[in-house]
Sequence to fold (313 residues):
Amino acid sequence: MIQDIHRSCIIKSTVALVLAGGFAGEFSTGYTSLPKALLPVFGRPISDYVLQALEQSDVEKIFIVQDEGANLQKSLTPGSKCQFITRNKDNSSLGMGVFFALEKIAEFYGNVELSKRMIVVVPCDTPLVTKDNFNQLIGKVAGKNADVTITIIAASLLEKRYPQKNYRSIYLADYKAGYTMQNVIFVNGEFIRLKPPEEPGKLRFSFRGWDEKVLKRVEDGINSIENLRHQSLFHDKLFMLWLLTKGYSSYILRFMLRLAFRSLTMSKVIEYLDGADHMQAAYIESEEVEFSADIDRPEDFQMLLGTSWKTSE
Fold:
């Protein structure tokens, strides 16, 4: 099992942020105006499965960020933990949508109370996840004091569970195996800062130690993720993009050299991330393959759910 060195004796409550923006146009021309969160899976909206799992898990509250006009609460079956956040067109990009939602969570709790919590950021399109999946990851993150904790999983577990789906992995020399990153990230509430009001409509949100220029570069980097998701070498490109947006070209060179010579280790990955603007990064090893069963394209239904997407409606 992979271990990491960032630990703390403080156990924080966990709240969830579900990213439920965007549309399902890739599945059918008739779905261009259908929110991705409402994509039908066996007669239910895809995001309903995620919300149900979170409702039954140990998270204390669930924030769902949606597009203006989506009105997901009318089509979903949210429980008592759920609260919807609606982003307008000015915050419709992935990066601004995440920042906007984190700001609303910070406004809900305030800086002091938010510092006592961990935010788990998850997509809305993983219908196989269960409460136990969430609780396993929450348990592994408990007591850690990193600003951001990423989730990785052994490629062999994914290949065994979903042999038809191609997962791009990075070889880690210290464990002599391939690992891939999952779409689950934990953000420490202490890392988030809610600034006093300035101009109307201007974000009050920031990360500790980051100025507006850094925040803008990171936003641009996050917005590029969607363009990379369906390409090969996704995780390699995503990690290099992260470093590029931070302006650390020397880290990119070292990362590429270690990758080319199969000498990259997880401790080096964390070291590179730690160098990004005073951010303390950590990682946990997941065994929850369900978080990697995200439905991005019609063929994913067959590979992950064993049925064509049209017959799953």
